[in-house]
Amino acid sequence: xxxxxxxxxxxxxxxxxxxxxxxxxxxxxxxxxxxxxxxxxxxxxxxxxxxxxxxxxxxxxxxxxxxxxxxxxxxxxxxxxxxxxxxxxxxxxxxxxxxxxxxxxxxxxxxxxxxxxxxxxxxxxxxxxxxxxxxxxxxxxxxxxxxxxxxxxxxxxxxxxxxxxxxxxxxxxxxxxxxxxxxxxxxxxxxxxxxxxxxxxxxxxxxxxxxxxxxxxxxxxxxxxxxxxxxxxxxxxxxxxxxxxxxxxxxxxxxxxxxxxxxxxxxxxxxxxxxxxxxxxxxxxxxxxxxxxxxxxxxxxxxxxxxxxxxxxxxxxxxxxxxxxxxxxxxxxxxxxxxxxxxxxxxxxxxxxxxxxxxxxxxxxxxxxxxxxxxxxxxxxx
Amino acid sequence: xxxxxxxxxxxxxxxxxxxxxxxxxxxxxxxxxxxxxxxxxxxxxxxxxxxxxxxxxxxxxxxxxxxxxxxxxxxxxxxxxxxxxxxxxxxxxxxxxxxxxxxxxxxxxxxxxxxxxxxxxxxxxxxxxxxxxxxxxxxxxxxxxxxxxxxxxxxxxxxxxxxxxxxxxxxxxxxxxxxxxxxxxxxxxxxxxxx
Lengths: 382, 195
Description:
The structure holds two protein chains of two kinds. By secondary structure, chain A is an alpha/beta fold. Chain A has two domains: 9-186, Rossmann fold; 269-381, Rossmann fold. Helices cover 37% and strands 20% of the residues of chain A. Chain A contains 13 helices and 15 strands. In chain A, strands 2, 3, 4, 5, 6, 7, 8 and 13 form an eight-stranded mixed beta sheet that branches. Chain A has a five-stranded mixed beta sheet with strand order 10-12-11-14-15, sandwiched between helices. In chain A, strands 1-9 form a two-stranded antiparallel sheet. In chain A, helix 1 (14-25) runs parallel beside helix 2 (39-51). Chain A is globular and about 70 Å long. The termini of chain A are far apart. Residues 1-7 of chain A have low confidence and may be disordered. Chain B is of the alpha/beta class. Chain B contains six helices and six strands. Chain B has helices at residues 30-44, 91-97, 127-135, 141-153, 158-168, 174-194; strands spanning 18-25, 48-53, 63-71, 83-88, 101-110, 123-125. Chain B has a six-stranded mixed beta sheet with strand order 2-3-1-4-5-6, sandwiched between helices. In chain B, helix 1 (30-44) packs across helix 5 (158-168), helix 3 packs across helix 4 and helix 4 (141-153) packs across helix 6. Chain B is globular. The interface between A and B is large, with 43 and 41 residues. Strand 9 of chain A pairs antiparallel with strand 2 of chain B, so a sheet runs across the interface.
């Protein structure tokens, strides 16, 4: 529709916005196995990606999907998949392989109720911890979380940027309500949002080390077929990628996986605050719950309750220091989430001694309502 | 880090928030009507609009619904809380969703399908019958209803709604859809005058 001043505003579904965001970030490859409530991502990708010069492939299952994504990424493509809880579980072993082989890739998890096949059509945020500890071994994970359709777009772009920058898998934690809701958004012009490209080696072939231990921690990444020689394995390896049993090399590799992300955590953290300036109380949440929280806080302000809202747009690595700072003047914190209490334990870990932490957990497949949060606010401030 | 509106302390509750539910049974084109309405309000009029719907087995066959929340401001909670307007095209939808209405909200029903209305204050139109008899196509009942809603609620400009309807209309049905929309405007205008 042509109407002056509104430009390219359009009504988009959250899942569609993830696709648009991925295209904006330059996605070239998608492999997936459709699953409710993420199916629209695969659907739109199947339509859009070939048109934009990319490849879409529907695999036989989620294990193969993430395997194909890892292969495509090693061949030099920006690659992604989309799934929900059950598929995310199946992918975990290969996601671990991506951590170990330092392969950039993006996984969109449109969360639904679990465990197992759980609630295909109902909302949950119960994969919060799985995004951190889903696969075995020690590693540092990155997970980002949108709360609006516009943020679905932005966080998908950011997920690609972070994954390329840090050579690591990144999870976008969406949810059923967000994935299916339609909302207005303006697709940003090219250049409006930052797009990060993979750091490529500029050394002679014989000097190249695929897993170089460098001061910046993140090593440049050559693609298959570019003439650089290296080995890729899930076994703990040396700088050339060959398996090692040398304690020093093992320690170096493990610390690299951790510190290449943790050193730069400040640049990964993203937090939205509403009405926090004079807040004595605050509601911490992420995803679509944050929208109920903002509404509830607005309603509480009408009743002269000094409460604010904090929305985490980066879940992992957890923003310890930033939250600790924000809690300085806060007496009580409510952690609202659609699971039996996952985020709340992280908040308890980082909260200063003077800040009391309360859990508001919902796990019946329904959305968190503003009234439910308002009621909890009134209960805890007594 | 974004402090979106950290300065707006004591900001008023969203007073211009307007909540609409289009309900009936599967196949009546209510989800599409919701998408059209949200597009007209959002893209055409430049306000904020969020459209949500119920998913899952309950959305197949049986009851169907699409919710649209409208505001000049940022829409925080995307789902409905208390409906300003309820469109009910079946008895079941009317029974089920009437309690979700705000006091003084507008109830719009299809008089050929809803026979027991829980209140005396409502607008009744035979949408499905009008679609069949006046337009010659039962499928445009949803568009007539959209026209009536636009006239009654005044939350969307008629031009934007027309544009959004025509954008979505299958090729060759533009004229019928336009006629259906005009009919919706007209019957609601007359009903308002009588009320």
